[in-house]
Amino acid sequence: MLDDLADDEALSLRAVAREVSIAATSVYLHFPDRDALVLAAMQRCHEELVGSGDQAEAAASDPAAGLRARIVAQCAWAESHPGLYKVLHESKVNRALGMPFKAVLVERTVAGVQRCMDAGLAPAGDAGTVAIDLRTAVNGMLSQRINEPDLPWPPVTEQLDRFLAKLVGLTKW
């Protein structure tokens, strides 16, 4: 439902109850309020997003290919679930409660950048700063593509490859 709505504020517990054919009050047996339900759904979606990147990176031949594969997988997940991606990054629940589970994705990106640096595939530097710059660029790109789909976007991988070259310093993957 969140993927279809693309807005956490548009979700109601009554609508969720109708969707799963239970009484509205039954939802409260599992979640104290709507925000808790949204947060739980977002955590599950974020775990899927991270898992898709983990699988892609594990199949790669070297750290640079692994970092690229991780981000390409995350972009594919966002393209398949644009409403959920918006909720994960633009939701009222995110602004109000934060989502500490999102730190996992940042940690994985930092580790991927550090592996590239350690292997001599990227210039040495502060992997944390580089990873945050990369995540900012990728999140901005995905958000813009979702919110402004009519713009003449280049292929995702072309744009991502420019980010990897300019922000991480990778020359091959």
TrEMBL record:
Residues 1-49 form the HTH tetR-type domain. InterPro entries: Homeodomain-like_sf, HTH-type_TetR-like_transc_reg, HTH_TetR, MT1864/Rv1816-like_C, Tet_transcr_reg_TetR-rel_C_sf. Pfam families: TetR_C_33, TetR_N. Residues 12-31 bind DNA. It comes from the Bacteria. The keyword DNA-binding applies. Gene3D superfamilies: Tetracycline Repressor, domain 2. Keywords: DNA-binding, Transcription, Transcription regulation. This is TetR/AcrR family transcriptional regulator. It comes from Fodinicola feengrottensis.
